[in-house]
Automatic annotation (TrEMBL):
<dbReference type="Pfam" id="PF02311">
    <property type="entry name" value="AraC_binding"/>
</dbReference>
<dbReference type="InterPro" id="IPR003313">
    <property type="entry name" value="AraC-bd"/>
</dbReference>
<dbReference type="InterPro" id="IPR037923">
    <property type="entry name" value="HTH-like"/>
</dbReference>
<keyword id="KW-0238">DNA-binding</keyword>
<keyword id="KW-0805">Transcription regulation</keyword>
<dbReference type="InterPro" id="IPR020449">
    <property type="entry name" value="Tscrpt_reg_AraC-type_HTH"/>
</dbReference>
<dbReference type="InterPro" id="IPR018060">
    <property type="entry name" value="HTH_AraC"/>
</dbReference>
<dbReference type="InterPro" id="IPR018062">
    <property type="entry name" value="HTH_AraC-typ_CS"/>
</dbReference>
<dbReference type="Pfam" id="PF12833">
    <property type="entry name" value="HTH_18"/>
</dbReference>
<protein>
    <submittedName>
        <fullName>AraC family transcriptional regulator</fullName>
    </submittedName>
</protein>
<keyword id="KW-0804">Transcription</keyword>
<dbReference type="InterPro" id="IPR009057">
    <property type="entry name" value="Homeodomain-like_sf"/>
</dbReference>
<feature type="domain" description="HTH araC/xylS-type">
    <location>
        <begin position="199"/>
        <end position="297"/>
    </location>
</feature>
């Protein structure tokens, strides 16, 4: 069931009807295709026991509860959400949510899509298994939703409204992300810090593989002893830093042998080997054929 079907007939902005005491739905006038795109935003104060679902969406939908409470259900779990809590509906996931009988909730929402949407939420620690973020400071978060709503109403320049809307969405997610970070255990924080350091090491090697790379210097740059970095790196990637760097160089060499007519010694130099003979030996160990044999066995093509 789509959001438009859930609310049956969309109320004009600021109108009151249906199962809401107050309902405001604002559509993005010109949604783009990108990493993060707002589809719509809004605000509602529901009647007691107002229910949505069971349903499935093809976009992400975040509700932040301002007051009152209700229950969000997904994957067989029930989550009671109150003021300051946010619940996230993921694409393709069956869900339902229902307002309390005595104190129905008042919430704001934003629906969005994008190639980076799920990865961004995952990096925050928000997943279908952990879809609720608790304890937001509403004085910090509510103005961001208000600004998003105001932005999407500027239909005189739809493209600019879309661009600014994505910015307000990122700020909303940033606030929720800070809360998630604050709720992590020390073990979670240690693991996240290690993962970031390993990512930095991989990024450094991927950018500097053509130059001499000292694992000792890399370790000092990241603030670790070489032995500790090597142990963490191997636990994460299955390879030592030296092995990973060698793999990067050999993969790049394979591409150059396949896509260019560069002489073997130039290929070796281009990927960080000072000795062409050593390069040929390592390439043969890795690919099962020397660089020259590997190139000869490639299908004929124009270089």
């Amino acid at each position: 069931m789509d959001k438009l079907d859930e609310e049956q007939e969309l109320a004009p902005i600021g109108d009151t009807r249906g199962e809401h005491d107050y309902h405001r739905f604002i559509l993005n006038p010109a949604p783009s295709e990108g990493q993060l795109t707002v589809l719509f935003s809004g605000e509602g104060r529901t009647h007691p026991l107002h229910k949505i679902g069971p349903a499935i969406h093809d976009y992400v939908l975040v509700h932040t509860v301002l007051s009152g409470h209700g229950v969000y259900r997904t994957r067989g779990q029930s989550y009671t959400c109150r003021g300051g809590d946010s619940f996230v509906i993921f694409p393709g996931e069956l869900f339902s949510y229902q307002a309390d009988a005595e104190e129905p909730w008042h919430y704001v929402w934003v629906g969005f899509v994008g190639s980076n949407a799920n990865a961004l939420l995952d990096s925050m620690g928000v997943t279908p298994e952990r879809p609720v973020v608790r304890g937001a400071r509403l004085p910090d978060l509510r103005p961001l939703y208000n600004s998003l709503n105001d932005t999407l109403q500027r239909t005189d320049d739809p493209l600019l409204a879309d661009l600014e809307g994505s910015g307000w969405l990122r700020l909303i997610l940033g606030q929720l992300g800070r809360i998630c970070r604050g709720n992590r255990t020390s073990s979670d924080l240690d693991t996240a810090a290690i993962d970031r350091q390993i990512e930095q090491a991989i990024r450094f090697m991927s950018l500097h593989y053509t130059q001499p790379v000292s694992i000792d210097q890399l370790s000092r740059t990241l603030g670790y002893h070489r032995t500790h970095l090597s142990r963490m790196f191997k636990r994460t990637t299955g390879l030592s830093p030296k092995q990973y760097l060698m793999q990067i160089r050999l993969e790049r060499a394979q591409t150059l042998l396949s896509d260019t007519s560069m002489p073997i010694d130039q290929v070796a130099s281009a990927v960080g080997f000072n000795d062409p003979l050593y390069f040929s030996k390592k390439f043969k160990d890795w690919a099962g054929a020397s660089p020259s044999t590997y190139r000869k066995e490639l299908p004929q093509r124009d270089l």
